[in-house]
Amino acid sequence: MSTVYHSQTDGQPEATNKTLEGYLRCSVRDNPKTWSNWLTMVKYYYNTNYHTSLESTLFEATYVYLPPSLTDYIPGSTNNQVVEDQLQ
Question: Which end of the chain is more exposed for a tag (fewer CB within 10 A), N or C?
């Protein structure tokens, strides 16, 4: 646990935030106001990315099994228009 502006922390929260900011910056480069729409995907990418210090993914270290893979989107694969719009 750490607090903001507390000089005695190890810097890990700041390093993680910097990484997540970089992922978000790459995702929203043309439309920065949409950053909140990308948080779920950025979190998924970070948690399913291999971390050398753990020698596994954060997901695998937490849940002790491999993370589920994302399936490809097939246009028209759902009858729900709201879901179809979200997937597009």
Answer: N
Q: Could you tell me how many helices (H) and strands (E) the chain has, helices first?
A: 4, 2
Tokens representing 46? 């970070």
Q: What is the domain range of residue 55?
A: 33-71
Is residue 80 in some structural domain? no
Residue partners of 54: CB distance under 8 A and separation at least 6: 61
Q: How far apart are CA 7 and CA 22, in angstroms?
A: 23
Number of folded domains in the chain? 1
Distance in angstroms (rounded) separating the CA atoms of residues 81 and 41: 21
- Is 70 exceeded by the pLDDT of residue 1? no
> Rounded CA gap, 82 and 76, in Å?
12
Does 82 fall in a domain? no
Average predicted confidence (pLDDT) for the chain = 83
Q: Is the pTM of this model over 0.85?
A: no
